[in-house]
């Protein structure tokens, strides 16, 4: 099957000028991923004047694999990559990374914890140390993502992405933790982590006299790349090349909270997609209600959606007497819906997704596994990894207040920040469903779910 033909504004976006920078914002399900694919295919096609090798880049591996599988994208001059893969390859080809010496995941958190232990005795009594290592990891990611190389840049910056402001007086202390972490990391044999690698890419590009590998870069889910990552992509194309950025700020789930405006993109006008072509009206109404909750932070880049035309049943909210009953409902519902179409059980964590699907056949979508024309069946994934994908039906299990917002996030951030972050994830998860959505909970339902009874059909098993 080939790509659906662009409609209306979509066609204008595919054929935007072949040089310069372009920004396309759109709400969920408006065709950004498809048009990113179309644009990348157009820019790399030998029939296009000014064509050249093109990179289609996105944040998460599952989406990159999904894009790779689109038939129209299997062409010689087009590479589909995650940002991590692009940056690693570039530095590796330049001899600047050895093997896999880029730090990430729990090992990074452990080193940050050691850095906190090393710095904290000099500032005994500070409330800063009440924060968990995940909070420090997030702050260090933010500093790296902004590309700050001097303390002054950090102390003078407006710290976006936190509902609760972070006092400027504490920033030199956090900077010390970051420096200490980087020293410890180097001692452990790691030159970079996945956040500061972008600055290394930029530094290398500035000194690189070789011909540019890519003439055009198309970015999907651009809101999840840090400003420094976007700047590195802008630096990676020649002057007669192009960067096209597609994004949705309502789905910004990686904490950077910065607009494309701070990313080195200079554009004449911003294109906006408002027609949701994925969700039924009832599902889109629920997503809109989530985005209208008081803690859901909306930036200037938020695009108000138009109500979709597709009809479908209202989302079902199943109130269960306990977790055992809830899991029985989730498994039976997923098996029933998976007979005729694709159904994803999307949970907040991998542990919850595996738990919810225990005993049934479900394909785990961790680093791929979901293709352009996936067959009917049950798929399981997390809110983060479902990014960019879509399914005929979605089941969101374990949506009680005990689990959503996530406990670890609540412990690491204060309640306002935690709710702002977690409601974006919930928004992403809800908007993955084309026509059917089932949400289950036991105990008290999550405070992140809207309370308007008109949005759901509420049932007990
Ligand atoms: N021109 C079109 N013709 C037919 N279907 C379309 C068209 N454009 C988009 N769609 C359909 O709309 C749905 C959403 O498209 P897509 O995944 O590209 O949206 P998106 O904006 O990237 O969404 P999200 O940001 O929520 O992941 C898909 O099912 C896609 O096939």
Salient structural properties:
461 residues, alpha/beta, seven-stranded parallel beta sheet, six-stranded parallel beta sheet, 15 strands, binds adenosine-5'-triphosphate, ATP-binding
Structural notes for this entry:
By secondary structure, the chain is α/β, with parallel strands linked by helices. Helices cover 36% and strands 16% of the residues. The strands form three sheets. The chain has a seven-stranded parallel beta sheet. It has a six-stranded parallel beta sheet with strand order 3-2-6-7-1-8. Strands 4-5 form a two-stranded parallel ribbon. α10 (227-235) links the parallel β6 and β7. It is globular. Adenosine-5'-triphosphate (ATP) binds next to α2. Keywords: ATP-binding, Helicase, Hydrolase, Isomerase, Nucleotide-binding. InterPro entries: DNA_helicase_UvrD-like_C, DNA_helicase_UvrD/REP, P-loop_NTPase, UvrD-like_ATP-bd.
The SSE string, one letter per element, is HEHEHEHEHHHHEHEHEEHEHEHEEEHHEE
Strand portion: 15-25%
Contiguous runs where pLDDT drops below 50 for at least 5 residues: none
Cα-atom Rg, whole angstroms? Answer: 22 Å
Mean pLDDT rating: 91
Major sheet: 7 strands, parallel
Number of helices: 15
What small ligands are held by the chains?
A: adenosine-5'-triphosphate
Structure classification: alpha/beta
């Amino acid at each position: 099957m080939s790509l659906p033909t662009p409609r209306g504004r979509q066609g204008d976006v595919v054929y935007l000028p072949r040089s310069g920078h372009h920004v396309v914002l759109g709400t969920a399900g408006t065709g950004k991923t498809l048009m990113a694919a179309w644009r990348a295919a157009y820019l790399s096609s030998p029939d296009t004047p000014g064509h050249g090798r093109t990179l289609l880049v996105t944040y998460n591996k599952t989406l990159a694999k999904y894009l790779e599988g689109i038939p129209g994208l299997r062409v010689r001059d087009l590479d589909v990559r995650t940002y991590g893969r692009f940056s690693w390859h570039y530095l590796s080809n330049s001899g600047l990374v050895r093997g896999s010496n880029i730090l990430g995941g729990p090992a990074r958190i452990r080193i940050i914890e050691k850095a906190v232990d090393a710095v904290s005795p000099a500032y005994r009594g500070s409330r800063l140390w009440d924060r968990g290592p995940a909070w420090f990891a997030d702050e260090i990611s933010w500093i790296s993502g902004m590309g700050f190389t001097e303390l002054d840049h950090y102390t003078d910056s407006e710290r976006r992405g936190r509902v609760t402001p972070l006092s400027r007086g504490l920033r030199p202390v956090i900077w010390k933790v970051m420096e200490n972490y980087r020293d410890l990391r180097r001692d452990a044999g790691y030159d970079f982590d996945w956040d500061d690698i972008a600055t290394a890419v930029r530094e290398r590009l500035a000194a690189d006299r070789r011909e540019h590998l890519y003439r055009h870069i198309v970015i999907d889910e651009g809101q999840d790349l840090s400003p420094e990552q976007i700047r590195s992509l802008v630096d990676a194309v020649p002057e007669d090349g192009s960067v096209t950025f597609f994004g949705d700020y309502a789905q910004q789930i990686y904490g950077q909270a910065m607009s494309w405006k701070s990313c080195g993109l200079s554009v004449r006008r911003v294109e906006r997609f408002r027609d949701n072509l994925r969700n039924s009206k009832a599902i889109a109404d629920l997503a809109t209600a989530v985005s209208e909750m008081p803690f859901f932070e909306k930036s200037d880049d938020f695009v108000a959606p138009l109500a979709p035309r597709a009809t479908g049943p209202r989302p079902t909210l199943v109130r269960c007497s306990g977790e055992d009953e809830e899991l029985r409902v989730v498994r039976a519902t997923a098996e029933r819906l998976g007979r005729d179409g694709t159904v994803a059980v999307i949970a907040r964590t991998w542990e919850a997704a595996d738990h919810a699907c225990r005993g049934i056949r479900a394909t785990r979508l961790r680093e791929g596994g979901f293709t352009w024309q996936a067959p009917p069946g049950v798929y399981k994934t997390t809110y983060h990894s479902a990014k960019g994908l879509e399914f005929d039906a979605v089941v969101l299990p374990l949506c009680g207040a005990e689990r959503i917002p996530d406990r670890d996030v609540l412990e690491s951030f204060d309640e306002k920040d935690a709710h702002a972050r977690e409601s974006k994830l919930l928004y992403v998860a809800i908007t993955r469903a084309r026509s059917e959505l089932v949400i289950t909970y036991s105990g008290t339902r999550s405070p992140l779910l809207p309370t308007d009874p008109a949005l759901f059909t509420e049932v007990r098993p």
